[in-house]
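Technical annex, item 7. During the second reporting period the consortium partners agreed on a shared format for inverse folding records so that results from different sites could be compared directly. Each record opens with the tokenized structure and is followed by the designed sequence. A conforming record, contributed by the partner at site C, is shown below for reference.
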């Protein structure tokens, strides 16, 4: 592929998330990016940890990548206010790390809220992140919260886009819209139109109906998510942010990352240029 793919080939709004090569170390991941001509990436904090922050920064800078965001996962236990100070400290560290990689956004999930009514969980999230949100805004940084799979209450309590946008606006954070978790949601077009100003990035992948495990995502175009329709909703609403490839699961492992990532980018590039 190196002989036919040049840097700048892919649509400039396409980003590849490190989770798409979940089992590979950062150095090997970056080598594939260079081979495929990928120049815009989203980093996974645990891969930075595994490589060591100094080495990870060296690798990314040597490759000349633009880092769009840093994904750090859940940091808050919303049913335990005594933990919030530790969670806030972890979020501040994540923002500092994002800045080090010249990224402007740290992506989190809401954190578990088991035992709380939904309304109390929402209020707890807003209260827990408020001090850090104000600091981040003053520093030109953004926090984005991702909607999570309805089976993953260990990651968060926000499982549809409407709720995620509502809580994000209350908290003053952005939204990481994960298509795999919301593509069958009621009134999706209206929800996107009403909340597009809050959407910081859109994570794209596919889902094969009949799948009963998670995560088991598919290469975009291989499954049943109406990606062209959803991208149309976003573009019509005025969304101009990144589309971030995040493919993970048995199908991707079976195919292999080089083929799965390349085919994904080819599909999404055609879609965005179409």
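Designed sequence (site C submission):
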């Amino acid at each position: 592929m190196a002989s036919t793919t040049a840097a700048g080939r892919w649509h400039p709004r396409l980003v590849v998330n490190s989770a798409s090569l979940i089992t590979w170390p950062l150095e090997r991941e970056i080598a594939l990016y260079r081979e495929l001509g990928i120049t815009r990436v989203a980093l996974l904090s645990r891969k930075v940890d595994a490589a060591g922050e100094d080495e990870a920064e060296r690798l990314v800078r040597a490759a000349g990548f633009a880092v769009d965001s840093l994904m750090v996962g859940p940091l808050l236990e919303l049913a335990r206010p005594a933990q919030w100070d530790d969670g806030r400290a972890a979020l501040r560290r994540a923002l500092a790390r994002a800045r080090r990689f010249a990224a402007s956004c740290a992506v989190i999930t809401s954190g578990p809220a088991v035992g709380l009514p939904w309304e109390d969980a929402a209020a707890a999230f807003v209260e827990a992140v408020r001090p850090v949100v104000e600091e981040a805004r003053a520093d030109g940084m953004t926090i984005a919260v991702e909607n999570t799979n309805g089976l993953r209450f260990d990651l968060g309590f926000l499982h549809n886009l409407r709720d995620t946008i509502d809580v994000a606006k209350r908290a003053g954070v952005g939204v990481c819209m994960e298509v795999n978790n919301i593509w069958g949601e009621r009134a999706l077009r209206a929800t996107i139109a009403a909340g597009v100003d809050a959407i910081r990035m859109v994570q794209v992948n596919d889902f094969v109906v009949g799948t009963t495990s998670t995560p088991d995502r598919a290469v975009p175009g291989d499954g049943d998510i109406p990606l062209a329709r959803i991208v149309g909703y976003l573009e019509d609403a005025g969304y101009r942010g990144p589309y971030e490839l995040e493919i993970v699961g048995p199908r991707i492992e079976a195919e292999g990352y080089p083929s799965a990532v390349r085919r994904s980018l080819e599909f999404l590039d055609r879609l965005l240029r179409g």
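The chain has ten helices and eight strands. Strands lie at 14-17, 40-44, 66-71, 105-109, 142-146, 174-178, 199-204, 243-245. All partners now use this format for quarterly exchanges.
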